[in-house]
Every structure is written in C-alpha cells, then in structure tokens.
Write a structure and sequence with these properties.
It is built from 4 helices and 5 strands; from the N terminus they run E-H-H-E-E-H-H-E-E. The protein is an alpha+beta fold. Strands 1, 2, 3, 4 and 5 form a 5-stranded antiparallel beta sheet that branches. The protein is globular, with a radius of gyration of 14 Å. The chain starts with a strand and ends in a 7-residue tail after the last strand.
Length: 109
Amino acid sequence: MQRMGSVLGIEPEAITEYKRIHADVWPEVLAMIAACNIRNYTIFLKEPENLLFAYFEYHGDDWAADAAKMAADPKTQEWWSVCMPMQTPLATRKKGEWWAEMESVFHVD
C-alpha cells in the first residue's frame, strides 16, 4: 500500500458548491475510484488559504496504469469537468499535474 497526498487551490467563491457536490459524489465516480485500487480517499479544505489537500491509499501494482484508467473513464471526465473550473492548480506543480503531488515525510500508525 502506498499513501499519497496532493494539494490544489480552490476558488473562494466555489467553496460552497464544491462542498455540496462532494457531499453527494456520483456513484460511477466512486466505483471508478475503487476499481483503480484507491481506498481511504479524503479531501480536506484549509481556509482562508483556500487549499484542498487530498489523501488516499493506493493498493494496486501499477499507479500509472490505474491513473490512466481513471482518466479515460467518461463519467470521471464529466465529474472532472464540473470540478476543475472551481480549482486553481499551484504554479509550482510538476508538468502534467493538476493536483500537485506531495512527498511523504512522516507516518505513524
């Protein structure tokens, strides 16, 4: 299992809507998350900085393949088309990233 964290900005005027849609995520999107070996997925919001922090545990063998599978899914693409206009990627993210991946520096169970 691999723990993964990433960060992204959110437009302040979109926070209420972002919370609303995430309170009722589409079942097809949830099914694809599970099909891509992602578990324990959580998104946190930090205000007033308006940052989203995502944490999940990856239980698969090939993250690149599972990420590509998710990205190719039409319902996930539709979900992203709703979410992405509300989000602000960090200027310091790596090429090809939307959510900026973070390095794990500490963990304890």
